[in-house]
Amino acid sequence: MPTAEETVDITSLSKQLKKEQRILRRKRILTNYPLVVGSVLFILLVFIALIGPIVISVDPNSMSVKDRLLGLSAVHPFGTDEFGRDVLARLIYGARVSLLVGLVVAVFSSVFGLIIGLYASYYKLLDHILMRICDGLIAIPGILLAIALMAALGGSALNVIIALTIVFTPSIARTVRSAALVIREQTYIEALQAQGASDSRIIWLHIAPNVLSPLLVQATFIFAEAIISEAALSFLGAGIPAPEPSWGNMLQAGKLVIYKAWWMVVFPGACIFISVLSLNLLGDGLRDFLDPRLKQKPKRWSFKKS
Question: Which CATH number, 3.40.640.10, 3.50.50.60, 3.30.450.20, 1.10.3720.10, labels domain 33-61+75-294?
Fold first, then answer.
């Protein structure tokens, strides 16, 4: 039996170990520059999308013919469009649409891809059926498949989400399947099967938690790709219908007057660039942070000449 003093020593050592682990984890996060920069940029975008309409309080669809194609000014910091609508207000409301579409697509694709990938990795018959369907969908260029689906469903934010979810689910399913196949061959999975554990218990309690790291990283990249795809669909007239503000349909309207009103193209394009850049940096940072092989050697950006 351990004495009271030994118990106190063990408790203090345990607290000290947890404190050192928290310090090490914090240090790894702060030295992971892609993760820090990507997180800051993305949080800033979300903050502007949520708080911007309260601060600006300008109707993005309010038209004024006499104010059409006005340049940058104190009243209209980002100018006006061809109908006299404030570009800054439309950018902020467009951020809500683009970020919401990207988030919902990333979540739905991750959920469906997780289910498909897990069951395909565990059952060989389902693997042959589901993966051949995924291969067929991946073989079609994503933007063409999305346009075809939008032509069948019609233009709306909900249909954009449905179309892009169908486009991106196969890639996540393959990522989950490849990670789950490795875990399925582990000795402890064979031990669980020998003990009579149900398939559902093995899949959801022992395999699924171990594929969440690559799934989270892949979902971050899908978020960025969904924003680009939504903008491309709206630019082509197959996405968010006018007059609802979207970065894509703002670019589509700006291309007609690009030589007279450059701000109608530059600012929506910059918003798409910043949002995609932040999510890609965030995904790279998460991959480096969650990869066990890099826990003792965090990735750093270096500007030294080799």
Answer: 1.10.3720.10
